[in-house]
Design goal:
The protein has 246 residues and is of the alpha/beta class. It has 4 helices and 11 strands, in the order βαβαβββββββαββα. It has helices spanning 11-22, 55-69, 161-178, 210-227; strands at 2-7, 27-31, 72-75, 78-83, 93-97, 103-110, 126-129, 132-135, 148-150, 188-190, 206-208. Strands 1, 2, 3, 4, 5, 6 and 9 form a 7-stranded mixed beta sheet that branches. A two-stranded antiparallel sheet has the order 7-8. β7 and β8 form a beta hairpin. α1 runs parallel beside α2 and α1 runs parallel beside α3. 34% of the residues are buried. The structure holds flavin-adenine dinucleotide. Residues 7-13, 30-37, 39-40, 43, 45, 77-78, 111-115, 118, 152-154, 159-162, 164 line the site of flavin-adenine dinucleotide. Keywords: Flavoprotein, Oxidoreductase. It holds the Pfam family Pyr_redox_2. Residues 62-168 form the FAD/NAD(P)-binding domain.
Length: 246
């Protein structure tokens, strides 16, 4: 059984997957469509991009980062989630998908802003506000059901990409802390940062020497230069109620 299945490969789900996968948890992201951010025309309030960034390019880069971290991906819409054993949530959850094989995971992160109907059998505490549903969570994104978490806009977070990314990361870390992973911080520090003070490198942290630091910087610059070399072809997705007469 997988450690964690993340429903929704948008901003919050991908951010969560980076943290769970980097902490060594077997992480699957299942996504049934498109992040709502694909509708954006120019992402200008995401820190780190002084003149903004194409939102679809940004999503592409986050997916690549999640893959590099070790997360795996499946396409499919989750239609139902329930415990493997009603009497013991430690046994994890089974997720039904439209058309695919059922998926099992010890923990589930719901990061699927546009749809949370599949959570109904679990009774996690969905709240209706107008036409939208939200899920009630604690500080770590934990719902009323042990082992089930919610992240991003679905968890009533403000409707901005950086907030969704931050919240997804926080929920990913809560999952790591609730699991058996030996973890302190996900940090990469210069060689000697801990060891020259006679401290062990804490779990989850790494020390790298200057050669390795330069090699990583070289790779990072190459990746970004290639990613930004050409304009991104995809256009924003229009709201479904706007008709396209072209
Ligand atoms: C027109 C527009 C412009 C915007 N502009 C900005 C902006 O300029 N700056 C900014 O910060 N924010 C902007 N946003 C808001 C931003 O896009 C969201 O706040 C952010 O994407 C929320 O992230 P999320 O992970 O909660 O949801 P999403 O990114 O929408 O991810 C949810 C994912 O879950 C998947 N999913 C849903 N149901 C299921 C299911 N049953 N099974 C499997 N997968 C499922 C979806 O396919 C999707 O990929 C804009 C939004 C819109 C609509």
């Amino acid at each position: 059984m997988r450690d964690v299945c993340i429903v929704g490969g948008g901003v919050s789900g991908l951010a969560a997957s980076i943290f769970t996968a980097r902490a060594g948890l077997d992480t699957l992201v299942i996504d049934g469509g498109e992040s709502i951010l694909a509708r954006n025309a120019s992402l200008e309030n995401y820190p780190g991009f002084p003149d903004g960034v194409d939102a679809r390019r940004y999503l592409h880069l986050v997916r690549e980062q999640a893959r590099n971290a070790g997360a795996t991906f499946e396409l499919g819409r989750v239609t139902r989630a329930e415990p493997v054993d009603e009497t013991d949530l430690e046994d994890g959850f089974v997720l039904e998908t439209d058309g695919g094989e059922p998926l099992e995971a010890r923990r589930v992160i719901a990061a699927s802003w546009s749809d949370s109907e599949y959570l109904v059998p679990l009774d996690v505490g969905r709240l209706k506000r107008g036409s939208k549903h939200f899920v009630d969570v604690d500080q770590g994104g934990r719902t009323a059901v042990d082992g089930v978490y919610a992240a991003g806009r679905l968890a009533k977070e403000p409707h901005q990409a950086i907030v969704a990314a931050g919240h997804g990361s926080k929920v990913g870390l809560a999952v790591v802390h609730d699991s058996d992973a030996n973890f302190y911080h996900d940090w990469v520090a210069p060689e000697g940062y801990f060891t020259d003070r006679n401290r062990e490198v804490p779990p989850g942290c790494k020390e790298i020497d200057d050669k390795e630091r330069r090699a990583r910087d070289e790779q990072a610059r190459k990746t970004m230069l290639e990613a930004f070399a050409e304009p991104f072809d995809d256009r924003p997705t229009m709201h479904p109620s706007v008709t396209d007469d072209t």
